Amino acid sequence: MSKPPITPLLELRDVKKAYRMGPETVQVLHSVNLQIFPGEFVAIMGASGSGKSTLLHIAGVLERPDAGEVIFDGQSVSNMYFWNRHKLRNRRIGFVFQFYHLLPELNVLENTLLPAMVASPLYKGLFLSRTKKQSARSLLDSFSLSHRLKHRPSQLSGGERQRVAIARALINSPDLLLADEPTGNLDAKTGRAILDVLINLHQTRKQTLLLVTHDSQVASLAQRTIHLTDGRIRDTKCR
Amino acid sequence: MYKFFLTLRYLTRKKIVIFPILVVWLCLMMMIIVTSIMGGFVDRVRQANRDLLGDIVIFSQNPTGWPGYDELAKHLAQQFPEIKASTPVVRAYGLAYFLYPYNQTVPIQLVGIRPAERSQVSRFRETLFRQYIAPHEAADALAPALPADRDKLIAFASENDRNISAKLELLREQYGKLYREQGDKLHDNSARPRQFELAEDRLNRAYQDEASAKRTWQFALSLPEKQYHSKADLLAALLPPKPSFDIPPAATQQAPDAAQDTGCIVGVQIGLLRRDKRGNFERPPDFPNPRLKITVFPVKDTGAISVQSGFTLPFTVVDDSYSGVYDVDSTYIYAPFETVQYMTRMRPDPELLKENPAADFPPRCNELLIKLNDATSANPAATRLLRAKIQALLDESFPMLTVQTWDERQAKYLGAVENEKYMQIFILGLMSLVVLVVIFLIFYMIVRDKTRDIGILKAVGGSELGVLTIFLNYGLFIGIVGGGLGVLCGVAFVTHTNEIHEWIYQTTGIIIWDRSVYLFDRIPDHVSPTVLIAYYAVAILAGLIGALIPATFAACQDPVKAVRYE
Predict the structure, then answer these.
(1) What is the CA radius of gyration of chain B?
(2) How far is A192 from chain B (nearest CA, A)?
(3) Do B458 and A62 touch (CB under 8 A)?
(4) Cβ atoms within 10 A of the Cβ of A172, count?
(5) Do A115 and B9 touch (CB under 8 A)?
(6) Looking at this predicted complex, what is its ipTM?
(7) Element (H, E) at B389
(8) Count of A-B CB contacts under 8 Å
(9) Measuring CA to CA, how many Å separate A81 from each of A12, A84, A85, A88, B275?
(10) What is the reported pLDDT for B532?
């Protein structure tokens, strides 16, 4: 008896995207086809302007493609109602940005809990479950941030901020973690530490990871590296 | 949940929120103050006009009036059960010459009324100082001594009078000392020390108190011998049973000629009484009865004044009336209805009739004032309907008569006052617009400042509606808190406005509102609950509307662009 074929967690079919830049239209993605399987660690590499961030945003349902289809866990995202798209983004996808993007008014714990709060309706949210708070604490503890729970982002170092951002992305236990140059704003040592966190997540939790970078050293840590040039996938290398 | 949580965090951690709250707070407070004080004046003017005329006025365009008014009143009362009371009025323009020590002539309107009937139709009785206000003042002053018999009340009033006189003496001494020390500056207005103003004010008030205490004592002396248990007992003994033009015996004792005079009631602003800056009329402790001669010029059918048949009669002032309507208080002299009819040739001369009975004609009047029952009177639509019915009835038999409601009759004055009200609404509307624009601008700044946060929120699954709700909650909070503070401070200011005014006067010597030139002696200090609810709702709405466009802008932002926003 043969094994059933594995369904990709994320699939992009003939995805095209163009932006208007004044009078001109710039084609950012040309018929991109991509499949990410559960538990996979994929890196997208490319020079600046190659379309890798746009690809990530489309993969993360933040942006709609002009053409083509995005399929998440077998379901076409294009046909989803907007509230289902919000729900998908909130429950099943986690984002880590280059510039951390923490809310300055919230402390570390609150920033981490933000997606959980978005997921909770008011009547439940007022008494946000202890389990959720506990999991945020242990997540932050695992990132060595337990002593920073009440600190605001402005009181943290770059590495600490990025770890908070990763904790925030993981609070709802997403199926897919998207990271847009997570080390791009950090020094080498701190950047390495952040990569260790991500690799550790991938290895211990089988976290599916799609990481955008232009650093070949970072990309070399992934199981699969996709090279993007001028909006086209040039080649794919597997480790 | 995040919407409320983030709203709370933005509110507690963004100091900029103070500014829209401050704007809503101050604007609402200002709106409440302006509306309550200006609206209070407007309401008082309207009420004073209503109190003057009753509910409906029937009048003739013909200056010589019309006959059969009593029959008409009776007929209308039978036809319309809503009519509670009615009274005829006759009026004429003339000149009043006040005898020594006044020696002044003033233009007046001589108004012939039946005082008891008039008091049933309007609040005429309540405007009379000697026959209503002073007895009430005395009953109030004597009330603390109750229960008491006449002797005890006299002793109480006398003791009170002595105390006030002693206080007055002390103030006189203080003023004298001040005069001796700085008297040279007294007549130099530019260098006039403020102590003079305040000392004069204290002295003035003490004089008023002394006059009132002396009047109370006189009233106590006039009380019949019996036991008094309540203020109502006192009033029953002190108030004349009905208002009248009767000349008091004291007046004829002082001036025997006054026995031949006719009693009259003068408007309080006609020039006999001085008014202090607090709006009080300076009345002497006793009740002087100035004498005057009134000349009226009857009007012919053509509308022309008959100067040759000018008619002069001597009168003695028996009371003064303070209606609150300036035109009335400054020009009206009330006299017995039949006397004024006779003076204006609207009733035949009895002497002439003896010689020539053929010269008889039915007496005439100019106006018929009508008071309706309380239910109809309180309902303007019902009043207007009844007016129309009366007019329809009169069109058949009295086509020369016009029927108007009290506000239609006084439309000339009330129209001006209403215009002020509309102007005020317009200005308040502009202020609301300013509030909206300020909230809009501040929110726009906040949204610009929070652009990246909005992108992050959307990236973690926040919806457009969620983002919209955050900023609308923010606006709602600003409306609720700013509006709440505005309501509290506005109410506190309005209800204490007279005290605040007094404090400013005592501290700086500045009188912002010189009551000697206004109709009323107190700044309106009542806040209508309807106005408060309406303004509070407007404040909340302003917060929401001001936030709506920036909130919509925030909600519709592209999350990718927002995340990339620098």
Answers:
(1) 32
(2) 24
(3) yes
(4) 21
(5) no
(6) 0.86
(7) helix B380-397
(8) 80
(9) 19, 5, 6, 11, 78
(10) 92
Contact B461 A118 (CB under 8 A): yes
Only one residue has tokens 């005429």, namely B124
CA distance B460 to A177: 12
pLDDT tier for residue B192 given thresholds of 50, 70 and 90: low
Query: Residue holding tokens 């997606």?
Result: A115
Distances (CA, A) of B181 to B50, B175, B190, B239: 52, 10, 18, 47
Q: Per residue in A65-93, pLDDT tens? A: 999 999 998 889 888 888 888 889 999 99
* Cα B506 to Cα B354: distance, rounded to the nearest angstrom: 67
Q: How far apart are the first and last CA of chain A?
A: 29
Q: Which of B134, B140, B131 is nearest to B234 (CA)?
A: B140
Which H or E run contains B67? Answer: strand B66-67
CA nearest to B252, candidates B244, B260, B241: B260
What is the Cα–Cα distance from A52 to A34, expressed in whole angstroms? Answer: 12
Residue partners of B103: CB distance under 8 A and separation at least 6: none
Q: Say which of A57, A87, A106 has its CB closest to residue B461.
A: A87
| Amino acid sitting at position B302 | T
Q: Radius of gyration over alpha carbons of chain A, in Å? A: 18
DSSP assignment, residue A38?
Answer: T
pLDDT of A236 above 50: yes
Strands (E), B82-223: 83-98, 104-113, 148-149
With H, G, I as helix, E, B as strand and everything else as coil, classify residue B324: coil
Question: Tens digits of per-residue pLDDT, B262-293?
Answer: 999 999 988 788 877 777 788 888 888 899 99
B516, pLDDT greater than 70: no
Count Cβ atoms within 10 A of the Cβ of residue B274 and give its class: 0-12 exposed, 13-18 middle, 19 or more buried: exposed
Q: Give the CA diameter of chain B.
A: 111
